[in-house]
Amino acid sequence: MPCRPGLLPRVSAAAPRSRARWLTLVATALVALVVVALSDRPGATRASLPDAVPAELRIATWNMCGVRQWNCEDTGGSRRKIQALKRLATVDGARVIMLQEVCAGDLASARKELGQGWRSTFRAYAYRDARGRQTDVRCAERRQGQAGFAILASSSLSRVSVVPTRQPAVGLRRGILCATVASHGVQVCNAHLTLPGGDRAHPDWEYRDDQLSSLVGAADARTVFGGDLNSAPPSAGSQDSWIWPYDMYRSYRECDQGSASSRSGRATHLTGHKVDYLFTALPRTHCSVRATAASDHLALVMGVRAD
Q1: Residues 95-118: tens digit of each pLDDT
Q2: pTM above 0.85, yes or no
Q3: Number of domains into which the chain is organized
Q4: Within a domain: residue 7?
Q5: Is residue 45 situated within a structural domain?
Q6: For residue 307, what is the DSSP state?
Q7: pLDDT tens per residue across span 227-258
Q8: Nearest to 151 by CA among 113, 191, 185
Q9: For the chain, which terminal residue's Cβ has fewer other Cβ atoms within 10 angstroms, N or C?
Q10: Is residue 87 classed exposed, middle or buried when 0-12, 13-18 and 19+ CB atoms within 10 A define those classes?
Q11: At what angle do helices 78-90 and 104-114 cross, to 10 degrees?
Q12: Would 9 be classed as within a structural domain?
């Protein structure tokens, strides 16, 4: 029979099963229409999807002081350092961690304990003698393997490369390691610079100015770069201000940089000095300094918008 507008057709009481089935179909159709309408609204979010990538990416840099023979005897053993590294990933939410003075064995253990999906890339430090012979630096315990610098990430790393830099003719050779974080399409570059007097053949030679220039030269608009730069900020009165490239604080901003004119930041070393940095041109969302009780360096953690 025809039905009045806004009313459901009447169903004979002699057919209760058909009526119940019909009402169930109507209710299901109405729910489906509501879901479609909500999901098709302009600006509707689908953040609940399991493969959604967060817009914020947190990146940390930390000198682990894992090479025991480098005045790190009093900073704790491997277990304490691995636990501190895991806290950066779990408590502080760092999805990418740049590491300096890390032992290859400790890096492998931390990566395994963090679980499936975590990846790393590692480069060993090398010592070059007066005859030009170069040998990798090893950590104190055999199981710890080589000493070096690394990038640890919760997603795959691509375009891994070592940035060419000037290094001491005789002495310890560090370096710059870059990789692209696949989940966000952000390049990260981890640097560990040469200390003043680090060239035993030429102790008066300065390497950090050239190394900083190489570091900035490897960056673009979607890069986060930094590490242990073994340098004080280029603030007024600093005798080492000249080593910093002009664009370092202008085209990019440092994690702890309060304003465009600021050249300071919280201390990242137990001596009270800032020597660890994170720079980017991406919008910053977070900056914190974390004591780990497992190194003479504090960890620096920065959040960026990477969407």
Answers
A1: 999 999 999 999 999 999 999 999
A2: no
A3: 1
A4: no
A5: no
A6: -
A7: 999 999 998 778 889 999 999 999 999 999 99
A8: 191
A9: N
A10: middle
A11: 40
A12: no
